[in-house]
# Entry
Amino acid sequence: MKRLLRALSGEAVWPPPVWLMRQAGRYLPEYRAVRAGVKDFVALCTTPELAAEVTLQPIRRYGFDAAILFSDILMLPWALGHGLEFKEGEGPVLPKLRDEAAVAALDPARVAEKVAPIMETVRLVRSGLVREGFAETTLIGFAGAPFTVACYMVEGGGSKDFAAVRGMAYSRPELFQQLMNVLTDATIEYLSAQVIAGAEALMLFDSWAGVLSPSLFRAHVIAPAARIVAALKERHPGVPLIGFPRLAGVMTLDYAATGVDAVGVDTGSDIAAVAAMLPAHVAVQGNLDPLAVVAGGKAMEAEAMGILNAMRGRPFIFNLGHGIVPQTPPEHVAALLELVRAG
Amino acid sequence: MKRLLRALSGEAVWPPPVWLMRQAGRYLPEYRAVRAGVKDFVALCTTPELAAEVTLQPIRRYGFDAAILFSDILMLPWALGHGLEFKEGEGPVLPKLRDEAAVAALDPARVAEKVAPIMETVRLVRSGLVREGFAETTLIGFAGAPFTVACYMVEGGGSKDFAAVRGMAYSRPELFQQLMNVLTDATIEYLSAQVIAGAEALMLFDSWAGVLSPSLFRAHVIAPAARIVAALKERHPGVPLIGFPRLAGVMTLDYAATGVDAVGVDTGSDIAAVAAMLPAHVAVQGNLDPLAVVAGGKAMEAEAMGILNAMRGRPFIFNLGHGIVPQTPPEHVAALLELVRAG
# Structure
């Protein structure tokens, strides 16, 4: 079994498997070269040859233990018929979903067709990994978790405090639950299609889970994740799931009860403290500060060694605690990999 | 002893004392009326009659158990000679502190004179509380914690990810430590002056503590808080301190070892889980979601009752988990107070 899959099955693989969130991206010159030739970000995500190419770039350069499908968490609402535009320097811009009509306008029936190019990307990456000799590299598919996707749909983009989506969850609980149900069902189909196309593991990104009060966290982070995990385990036994409820803090233990095989830990958490809370068979993934990789040198070494020393003997996947940032020098990533592989 | 001070001394006062972060502010029409007559926010903070007036407004309206000095966490860097401007709709704008010269330019010697009007506000509020018959209301003084203040100084304002300040902490640790030392020393003097002027309890706001990796959290959140607590306990025995390391998550237990009398809990945390981690004599303050107060009605009631039921029998201060937001209907605050006072 591949190293990453062994860790996800509960084995303390050492040195630990390693990959980095957003490992395909703007810090790599070869990525910027591809990106320069495409009109927009959605086009990049829906052109299988290009999306597969950028997925493979960091594997060729660093030999990570996982390739993660190059896509975006907002491709699912896009496939549901919700608008999506990426504006330079502004991030994603979407229509603001605020009423029943907007939920009713979401069209799950069209998703399969619209995400077909993404499934083609999955197939191309899987065959590309074999063809290029990366037999040990695991292909991870992913989706945004329903709450985080709902955040962008309700707010119409990013937000400092996500007041509109939290307000809707409190003041219009039935409307918000309708939206969450549509997104949860669509996420199950979307992730299942990725497995059928060749994804060997799945990850659910709940980037904004931490803005919710505990009761809303249980209703809109834990409950949908549990439903997604159960459905996927039934359809695809043996395909592991990594959940990443960012900023969940003390709620991480409750989250682990969703049945995920691994929990992603964010930069701000003490990974040893989180690991100590979790059942021993649940793998932990994380959590180097991306800014430590920008700094490199002794600061990066101290941070990385702290994590490695704390996780030795535990099912663990080395990763960042947040996506790698564009200003990261690629040679710092190479130095990081050396550290991790020396264990 | 006043109800709030009893809770801070480790007593399970019931119904719990209650106040709200940013209880003096834009959601109150009487605040907006005062604010409309002042040229800028700094002027409001440095005009004792007006700052005292807005501090007292929510006490008159709701009879909270605490009045918190109306000021801003950035008044300390302002007093150190660092620039500060509040731009409409943009938040604070400061010069970006990036080198040794900028740290050397900070002038602790001028702080006492520059904060003199703020100390006059403290005196006016304290006498105003007595004169207006609020004999049970505790006056809380406060400061931003050094790390959070450094965030704004290095970034030049708010930030999505505080990459510059985190980068400085990793790449220029000596420079950053110099800045932290200046801020920590100045914070001790500033809080001590507030006690001398009449503050009966103190609060340290570390709003951005959660962006730090655990090692940086220990160095720049816990260590300075421990130094501030020790110095103030020595100078002013019996004056309790509330620490609020926002988004500290699993690091909250480490934070409690600073010696604070109470820990503020943010909206995203399960207050029962946090309280269970802490020593029984440490009071807990929090953590209703401000958006639940905007929603009001059943949603607010369910959230508030969940917190009250979890905290019964423990030293506890009811509060929000983040500042009250401008769109909050004042009558929802009145309804909340009724709930809390019914226990």
